[in-house]
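Pasting as-is:
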Amino acid sequence: MLAKQMFLAFLGLASGLSVAAGTFALIVSLKIVPRIIGKGHTAGRILLFENAIILGGISGCIVTVFPDLVIPFGSSFLILYGLFSGIQVGCLVMALAEIMNVFPIMFRRFHLKMGLSWVITFMAIGKTIGGLWYFSRQIGQ
């Protein structure tokens, strides 16, 4: 019985580490953090960015592994968490789309010469409205 539980603990730890390594490898290979630092001219705060990424990964793991855990920070913390999670997912998606050259192909096919900032802005607005619609109608339940 102990050997079985030790094996399951090892398997769970190894699986979690491999998923975390894959996630962080994707973030590193897409060069999201250097781009954000470069665009924001915040090179002096690299340690802050690194610590925030590590803290976010650890807190995400804790919340995922222990779903019944009550976080006593209230709804304002939940709003901030949702905002920052959305920003992170948006940065990840936009970096992935940029790496895969989605926008040049899309602009060439739709014969768009100007308006990149408008297209991206309205994509973000549409994603926000879709997410609000999804959660307000409780579609995932």
